[in-house]
């Protein structure tokens, strides 16, 4: 009974700590292998002064995977790196590492050792004159939390950005805080265009990070991509070339330089860079996806040059590109089963190969993903609607999925495209049958979404009149529901 009480007391103290175990890092079990691969790649290939945190994160991931002894080894690595830092910089990192030790020993059923690390945290908090016995509020701690969140994928980017912003409010000239904030802002912009982070703001944060970190080739590569986004490709290429001449973080620079050249249309150059990066990190889902995109782009070039009807030797080249793209997209998804956009790209390649069954299976796997963000789900419904309309020739299923895309109230280009596709389908059905209540209801719904209320009412009223004439209550409720 005393042991249980002691364990409860230890747990109450642990909950007050700021470390990876209390930061609510959202990692699904299926994401663990890819996250671990990305952490190991960063340890080996990203040249940074800020790598204590990545060993702490690796320890947490090892724990989640049930490998507590390996987790302890990673924490010892973190401790070793802390010893090499100046004391002022390392206090917060030491507290995070000790907090992780305390939690890990608690989970291993070793409360005495957990308490020993809690004591270390408490003594340091006294030195900081912190109001809490086990918690310190300082910008370096916010920064550590930001790095951990940043590594855990798109659903954590907003929280990561907020952490770095909080740290910068205290120390605006800190190079590490500025770097973290710039990366978080860039990632958030790429991840979710609907947030409408202003292009100018994103550029500004990247340029500020370069001002404070002039030798950081990784940030230069990100700035180049952002400049390309806003139509300043020539200026962006200068930064890419600058980054490529720097030996720092080359594997990462190759990745982003390849993305830059792929989007520019220099596909051979992009593939060359991607294959160089792949030699260093052969399991990277990101790289395999990018290589797949290059082969897909080459396939489109072949198709366009053949007036969309490749034959003979040209057809063989076309089929080879499709097979190569499929192979790399499949590998990316094996490494990272939550890689939502890769499902859409893989399905599109199966469609090119006339393998509709595999395309269908791929879409169904994608729809089974947990916690898909609204914009991603919207994209999935649009593309699946297209597949149903043009390959499966199912107007009914196409309408269902275009409607689902539109009903996700996230302003986007694909929502607009879904509305246009719905409108075309509804008008086509009405030409065949002017009394089609569903099509009239759909048109009413579309005009309502567009804000054209007079037109919306006109179509809704026509639908309801017809439904009343047919005396079909089910049809009436459908008209009202849409």
From TrEMBL:
<feature type="repeat" description="TPR">
    <location>
        <begin position="251"/>
        <end position="284"/>
    </location>
</feature>
<keyword id="KW-0051">Antiviral defense</keyword>
<keyword id="KW-0802">TPR repeat</keyword>
<feature type="repeat" description="TPR">
    <location>
        <begin position="340"/>
        <end position="373"/>
    </location>
</feature>
<keyword id="KW-0399">Innate immunity</keyword>
<dbReference type="GO" id="GO:0003723">
    <property type="term" value="F:RNA binding"/>
</dbReference>
<dbReference type="InterPro" id="IPR011990">
    <property type="entry name" value="TPR-like_helical_dom_sf"/>
</dbReference>
<keyword id="KW-0677">Repeat</keyword>
<dbReference type="GO" id="GO:0045087">
    <property type="term" value="P:innate immune response"/>
</dbReference>
<dbReference type="Pfam" id="PF13181">
    <property type="entry name" value="TPR_8"/>
</dbReference>
<protein>
    <submittedName>
        <fullName>Interferon-induced protein with tetratricopeptide repeats 1</fullName>
    </submittedName>
</protein>
<keyword id="KW-0391">Immunity</keyword>
<dbReference type="GO" id="GO:0005829">
    <property type="term" value="C:cytosol"/>
</dbReference>
<comment type="similarity">
    <text>Belongs to the IFIT family.</text>
</comment>
<dbReference type="GO" id="GO:0051607">
    <property type="term" value="P:defense response to virus"/>
</dbReference>
<dbReference type="InterPro" id="IPR019734">
    <property type="entry name" value="TPR_rpt"/>
</dbReference>
<feature type="repeat" description="TPR">
    <location>
        <begin position="437"/>
        <end position="470"/>
    </location>
</feature>
């Amino acid at each position: 009974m005393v042991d249980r009480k002691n364990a409860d007391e230890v747990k109450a103290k642990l909950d007050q700590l700021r470390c990876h175990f209390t930061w609510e890092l959202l990692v699904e079990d299926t994401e663990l292998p890819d996250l671990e691969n990305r952490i190991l790649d960063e340890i080996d290939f990203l040249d940074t002064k800020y790598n204590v945190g990545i060993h702490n994160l690796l320890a947490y991931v090892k724990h989640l995977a049930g490998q507590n002894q390996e987790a302890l080894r990673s924490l010892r690595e973190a401790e070793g790196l802390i010893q090499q830092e100046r004391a002022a910089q390392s206090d917060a990192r030491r507290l995070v590492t000790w907090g992780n030790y305390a939690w890990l020993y608690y989970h291993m059923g070793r409360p005495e050792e957990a308490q020993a690390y809690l004591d270390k945290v408490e003594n340091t908090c006294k030195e900081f004159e912190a109001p809490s016995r086990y918690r310190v509020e300082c910008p370096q701690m916010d920064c550590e939390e930001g790095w951990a969140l940043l590594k855990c994928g798109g659903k954590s980017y907003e929280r990561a950005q907020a952490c770095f912003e909080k740290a910068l409010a205290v120390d605006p000239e800190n190079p590490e805080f500025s770097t973290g904030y710039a990366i978080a802002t860039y990632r958030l912009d790429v991840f979710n265009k609907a947030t409408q982070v202003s292009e100018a703001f994103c550029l500004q944060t990247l340029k500020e990070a370069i001002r404070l970190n002039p030798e950081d080739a990784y940030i230069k590569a990100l700035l180049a991509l952002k400049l390309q986004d806003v139509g300043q490709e020539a200026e962006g290429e200068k930064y890419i070339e600058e980054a490529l001449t720097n030996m720092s973080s080359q594997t990462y620079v190759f990745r982003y330089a390849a993305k830059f050249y792929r989007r520019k249309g220099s596909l051979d150059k992009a593939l060359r860079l991607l294959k160089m990066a792949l030699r260093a990190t052969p399991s990277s889902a990101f790289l395999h996806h990018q290589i797949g995109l290059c082969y897909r782009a080459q396939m489109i070039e072949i198709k366009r040059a053949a007036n969309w009807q490749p034959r003979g030797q040209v057809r063989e080249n076309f089929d080879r590109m499709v097979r190569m793209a499929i192979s790399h997209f499949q590998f990316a998804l094996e490494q990272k089963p939550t890689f939502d956009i890769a499902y859409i790209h893989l399905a599109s390649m199966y469609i090119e190969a006339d393998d509709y069954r595999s395309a269908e299976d791929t879409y169904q796997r994608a729809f089974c993903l947990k916690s898909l963000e609204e914009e991603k789900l919207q994209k999935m419904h649009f593309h699946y609607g297209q597949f149903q309309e043009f390959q499966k020739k199912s107007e009914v299923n196409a309408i269902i999925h275009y409607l689902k895309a539109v009903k996700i109230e996230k302003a986007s280009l694909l929502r607009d495209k879904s509305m246009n596709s719905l409108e075309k389908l509804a008008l086509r059905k009405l030409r065949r049958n002017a009394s089609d209540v569903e099509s009239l209801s759909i048109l009413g719904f579309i005009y309502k979404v567009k804000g054209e209320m007079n037109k919306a009412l006109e179509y809704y009223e026509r639908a309801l009149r017809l439904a009343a004439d047919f005396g079909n209550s089910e049809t009436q409720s459908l008209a009202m529901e849409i």
